[in-house]
Design goal:
The complex is a heterotrimer of chains A (338), B (266) and C (289). With 338 residues, chain A is mostly helical. Chain A has a single domain, classed as ABC transporter involved in vitamin B12 uptake, BtuC. Chain A is built from 15 helices and 2 strands. The radius of gyration of chain A is 20 Å and the shape is globular. The C terminus of chain A is likely disordered. Chain B contains 10 helices and 12 strands. In chain B, the strands form 3 sheets. Chain B has a 6-stranded mixed sheet with strand order 6-7-8-3-9-10, sandwiched between helices. Chain B starts with a strand and ends with a helix. About 5% of the residues of chain C have low confidence. In chain C, the strands form 2 sheets. Chain C has a 5-stranded parallel sheet, with helices on both faces. The longest helix of chain C has 22 residues. In chain C, 40% of the residues are buried. Chain C has 289 residues and is of the alpha/beta class. Classes of the chains: A mainly alpha (338), B alpha/beta (266), C alpha/beta (289). Chains A and C meet through α3, α8 and α9 of A and α1, α4 and α5 of C.
């Protein structure tokens, strides 16, 4: 169907357009709005003006990070929903966010970041995430077969355990540490270190590219594991690799930006409503849509009650949740059931 | 075409199939019958590499299936499951999924050839008119035909059908089995069907394999296998076997409790 | 295998991108302390704002938090956020050359500001009276009011000494200061509230380390005085709650007091002394003439 290819390309073009517009919108809006024409002159004027600082040192890094994290979480959401054939699965269901939060908590409480530098915070988050990933994976393997149901249940349980442990740590920690923990958990796209931002972008885009090697397998998996096997998919290898991609991308995002919920859950469903379930178009569309969504939410978070800033997780939750309910009402969300 | 020797397999600790030896010739239409729990589905799964046998080998066209690549096997064997779970997609897209084993390494979209094969399959199964409809909207009988269409786009040498006529009305039962018979005769497609309904199996299959409690009870053509003594032994219910007046194949009549009592009192 | 080579290529490109940027140097607090020429200062803590006004340097203050309400004049200054969340754009717009942060300020914001070339000095919560005075002097040096500060500190230390002497021979009541409800949180031996109590001639029953406490333990320790620093209805409710435990000395003798949390929890050297006087009065009212 040549027409389908044209339709897909159009979609990607539209989404890219939306993404770019929202990014430019985000650059313009803020405590002091900088109109578009002025942006061009500021760029040419070079470093030195306040506006330049605001644009390139404050707003642009946030936009880039939101692109990376929004894209990564949506991608992980698509992959996991495809693998598990369960509409409620999202990147945090597997307990990865719990592990990362626990790692960061322990770091804050033991003041490791004061001794070894601020980069240890995302590193300990990532370490926590990896440990949970390994734990969940090994607990769900029976005789070399990765049990999907086991992954889900183990992940949810570990999530609960991590939350309780985090609450325990919060209960016995000092006030200053407590604040640190709470604000990390609430999620923030403010990141002073360009290395981390580049890392986030690199990992997200890498994840997207690699997941495309499995786009057909994901289509086959949507029919069920046995069916996919009949279609010639090496399901054990595919499940393993998809799980690793989704977990790494999620672990990286959570370590750098904290817990930003709903993006991984809502964006894939939303995109499916318009584009369908073919993963060949779904992967890139969810990535772009997620990126745009998070940039929008972040912009709202920092402008709605200026000069105060809301945690971006609040906006993604409210906006994302409402969109999800709207989608349920208007167009039935269908996944896997007859 | 297919040779199974000394197969033992099961799930976790339970062995379901014991010492299965079957030989399927090219262009054959074989039926697998047996009571519930006798291992029919397990046998299909063993042939398609879903479960690994504890012992024994399965040879497809002379090669051990466990030595083949996943895609290689999928190009030779296609399975028509009992029913489907699927996302929102059109019938044509669903049928095109059958071409996945044939995609080349970095191929992303379907080629024209792929589309042609899919359309041919749709026409063969008389579902071409449904191709634009959503897969979730069509009826049970049409779904089964679409599943067969998808299996056909895999261009298999061997077609496996897992109870293709359960839950369907007689219109569709006949339609589907006629289709399989036709494909078998006209294109030389080898087919193995797991069937519940003994009469359908008798009518359409050249050879039958009767399984009981994981072992082969009897192999042969319908007249040999569908003898009332054998059926009563395996299915533990009273039956009467006669000739189908139209096709001369064995036809099984069940005897209800009421009838049994009446006969006894005569 | 083609796939493996492809992956290797991706990995190497990936690593190249990551490692190709310089790491940012950590800022050194000590170096900038010697500078005194700051003209545009933003305060990220109410206590710091109050101290700046105390030093008479409010003309240099260009921004503070929305919770900086003391003195009243501070409410007229530009607001840049709360003590725990700061609006970087607002800050940058005000073109400050010095930012005074607290231990509650998010470290990422501090890093960001330093990357933008703005000096940041962090004032962590003081743990005793001496640290309160030290921080005051440090602050004064930054705003160029060293002499005024030294005068104030000298006076304040003298007054503190005087109060200490006054109550030295009086009996030391056992004191518990409650700083939080749900869960019950008391002032520990490591906070400056400990100094408040001891200077005022009391004995702090609070623990060392974490301040989470159980009411059972309070009953066991039987304080003579309970001071509640949570305000408003919550404070009143807590008082009523304590009054149910009639076995406690403080309840028997009706010595449960509610003190403004501003006074007790974020003091400047001067307000410390004022509160100290009040506290001494509370603890020893029976021996005052």
């Amino acid at each position: 169907m040549k027409t389908r290819l044209i339709r897909w390309i159009t979609w990607v073009a539209i989404l890219t357009g939306i993404f770019l517009s929202i990014s430019i919108f985000s650059l313009i809006i803020g405590t002091s709005d900088i109109p578009f024409r002025k942006i061009i002159s500021v760029i040419f004027a070079g470093r030195g003006t306040t506006e330049y600082s605001i644009l390139f040192d404050i707003r642009l890094p946030r936009i880039i990070l939101a692109f990376a994290i929004g894209g990564a979480l949506s991608l992980a959401g698509v992959i996991l929903q495809g693998m598990f054939r369960n509409p409620l699965v999202e990147p945090y269901t597997l307990g990865i966010s719990g592990g990362a939060a626990l790692g960061v908590c322990l770091n804050i409480v033991f003041h490791l970041h004061r001794i070894f530098g601020v980069l240890t915070l995302p590193m300990s988050g990532f370490l926590g995430a990896i440990l949970v990933i390994i734990l969940v994976y090994s607990l769900s393997r029976r005789k070399g077969i990765l049990k999907i149901q086991g992954l889900l249940l183990t992940g949810v349980m570990i999530s609960f355990i991590s939350s309780s442990l985090i609450m325990l740590i919060m209960a016995v920690s000092r006030t200053e540490d407590l604040h640190g923990i709470v604000f990390w958990i609430m999620g923030s796209l403010e990141e002073p270190n360009w290395v981390l931002i580049k890392l986030a972008v690199g990992v997200s885009v890498f994840g997207l590219v690699v997941s495309y090697l499995f786009c057909l397998d994901l289509n086959a998996l949507s029919l069920g594991e046995e069916e996919a096997l009949h279609l010639g998919v090496n399901i054990e290898k595919t499940k393993r690799l998809l799980f690793i991609i989704a977990s790494l991308v999620t672990g990286c995002s959570v370590s750098i930006a904290g817990i930003i919920g709903f993006v991984g859950l809502v964006v894939p469903h939303f995109v499916r409503m318009f584009i369908g379930s073919d993963h060949r178009i779904l992967l890139i569309s969810s990535f772009l849509c997620g990126a745009a969504f998070l940039i929008l939410c972040d912009t709202l978070a920092r402008t709605i009650i200026s000069p105060l800033e809301l945690p971006v997780g609040v906006i993604t939750g409210i906006l994302g949740g409402s969109l999800f309910v709207y989608a349920l009402i208007r167009k039935q969300i269908v996944l896997g059931e007859k | 075409m297919l040779e199974i020797r000394g197969l033992f397999c099961g799930y976790d600790s339970r062995i379901i199939l014991q010492d299965i030896n079957i030989s399927v010739e090219d262009r054959e239409l074989l039926g697998i019958i047996g009571p519930n729990g006798s291992g029919k589905t397990t046998l299909l799964r063993a042939i398609t590499r879903v479960i690994k046998p504890g012992a024994g080998v399965v040879f497809l066209e002379g090669r051990d299936i466990w030595q083949m690549g996943f895609k290689e096997l999928a190009k030779k064997v296609a399975v028509v499951p009992q029913d489907l779970i699927a996302n929102l997609m059109s019938v044509e897209e669903f049928v095109l999924l059958g071409r996945i084993p044939h995609y080349r390494k970095f191929q992303f979209l379907e080629t024209n050839k792929d589309k042609e094969i899919a359309q041919k399959a749709l026409k063969l199964t008389d579902t071409f008119k449904l191709r634009g409809r959503s897969i979730l909207e069509i009826s049970g009988g049409e779904r089964q035909l679409v599943l067969i269409a998808r299996a056909l786009t895999q261009e298999p040498r061997l077609l496996l059908l897992d109870e293709p006529t359960t839950h369907l009305d007689i219109t569709h039962q006949v339609r589907i089995l006629d289709l399989i018979k036709r494909l078998n005769k006209e294109t030389g497609l080898t087919a193995i069907m797991v069937l519940h309904d003994l009469n359908l199996a008798s009518e359409y299959c050249q050879r039958l394999v009767l399984l009981n409690e994981g072992k082969i009870h009897r192999v042969g053509n319908p007249s040999d296998v569908l003898d009332y003594k054998i059926i009563e032994e395996v299915y533990r219910t009273v039956v009467v076997v006669q000739r189908n007046p139209i096709s001369s194949r064995p036809y099984i009549f069940i005897v209800s409790e009421e009838e049994r009592k009446r006969r006894q009192s005569l | 295998m083609k796939k493996r080579q492809f992956f290797n290529l991706l990995y190497s490109v990936f690593l190249l991108i990551i490692l190709s940027s310089p790491a940012y140097p950590e800022s050194l607090e000590k170096g900038i302390e010697s500078k005194t020429s700051f003209k545009r200062i933003i305060s990220l803590g109410p206590s710091i704002t109050e101290q700046i006004y105390l030093l008479g340097a409010e003309d240099k203050l260009v921004g503070c938090t929305i919770y900086c309400k003391r003195p009243k004049e501070a409410e007229g200054k530009e607001k840049v956020g709360t003590a725990v969340e700061v609006n970087l754009e607002k800050i940058v717009n005000l073109k400050p050359d010095l930012i005074l942060a607290t231990s509650l300020t998010p470290p990422k914001a501090i890093d960001k500001l330093e990357n933008l070339g703005i000096e940041v000095v962090i004032f962590s919560s003081p743990r005793n009276f001496n640290e309160i005075c030290e921080q005051f002097l440090r602050l004064a040096a930054l705003v160029g009011k060293k002499e005024e500060a030294e005068k104030v500190i000298k006076e304040v230390k003298a007054e503190a000494y005087e109060i200490k002497q006054r109550v030295r021979d009086l009996s030391k009541p056992k004191v518990l200061v409650q700083v939080g409800t749900k869960p019950l949180w008391v002032a520990t031996k490591d906070s400056f509230i400990n100094d408040f109590i001891e200077f005022a001639g009391g004995q702090n029953l609070g623990p060392a380390g974490s301040g989470i406490y159980s009411r059972e333990r309070v009953l066991k320790q039987n304080p003579d005085v309970i001071i509640i620093t949570t305000m408003g209805i919550v404070g009143e409710n807590e008082k009523k709650l304590w009054q149910r435990y009639r076995a406690i000395n403080a309840v028997k003798n009706n010595r449960i007091y509610i003190i403004d949390s501003y006074k007790l929890c974020s003091p400047t050297p001067v307000s410390f002394i004022q509160t100290l006087e009040e506290l001494a009065g509370i603890l020893h009212f029976d021996s005052e003439e």
